[in-house]
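This week, think about what follows.
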Amino acid sequence: MSNASTLELIRDKVSNAERLTFEDGMFLEEHVDLLTLGQLAHQVRTRMHGNVAYYNTNIHLNPTNVCVYRCKFCAFRSDLKDEKSYVFDEPMIQERVLEAKAAGATEIHVVGGLHHQKKFDWYVDVVRVIHETWPEIHIKAWTGVEINWFAHLTKKPYRWILEQLIDAGLGSLPGGGAEIFDEGVRSQICEHKADSQSWIDIHRTAHELGLRSNATMLYGHVEEARHRIDHLCRLRDLQDLTGGFQTFIPLAFHPENTRMDNIIKPSGNMDLRTIAISRLMLDNFDHIKAYWIMLGEQTAQIALGFGADDLDGTVVHELIYHDAGAETPEGLTVSQLHELIREAGCEPVERDTLYRRVHRDGMNWSVGEPVLIS
């Protein structure tokens, strides 16, 4: 069959909201130009969300950068005795939460290093202190890699770990740590870290407990197209089983200050292709996020026409990707987000972590109905 005929079959599938196969995904990767990908992905995005683009008002907390792992792609981690190492104490956490409250944030996003001298109770207490300081804020905390480390520390199953965190105030899981599921690739970029099956098992368990979570994919390093499509298919399979994923976030690799700094960072073309293919393959994910911190404001804005429907949020105090060379601001104001979204021809809608509309009166806010309009 000719490439033109194969593309027409894929167009028909997209128009009829039919699932694309692994082979379809590889064809899109290898034979379809960027603008055609964008057109197909925008068709799906528009069918699901119209011209709406979502954002939230959030703040980040990275409680420590001390980490037992030495992932080659990471510029954030630190050894215990490094000059740049740090650990938040309880007053520092409270200060960050009160800052979030003053800014009208609806979410605090918590990820960090795996400090080998901290017991599981310390990580639970980070969540507990946040919750007790301001019960109204949604706590999105600890990636699958961190949950796997907690299980190692305690010798307890994932379900028990998650139940302790839920009792302390955990609201949902972020999607980090997925990287690329192919174990051959993982052995090159993050050996010894939680493997792909552990990440999947943790998110499945979280979904069974009623937690929602996000999912990510780190691209633009040593992986190949087949690894990216396989990653998307595995996420789609788990979503078929649980329905617990909310958002997929493709994460562009930033090589600066890492042990992989010989690699050239992904181009804008690759960023947009990855977002578009993700939207086309992940038919059971409601949202695709263009994370402006990693993509840059301009590429993220363009991505709203290539399948993305969410820009993330105000993202104050983000450190992990800035340590890796991200030149974006550490935060954007709501008015700046509105401007980016409206320039892209979309209508901004503020949502909370669980994708419910936020009704705002200055710094005061309340949560309304789910935002999904498809």
User: Anything to note?
Assistant: Residues 53 and 108 are 21 Å apart (CA to CA). The longest helix spans residues 225-242. The two ends are 34 Å apart (CA to CA). The chain has 15 helices and twelve strands.
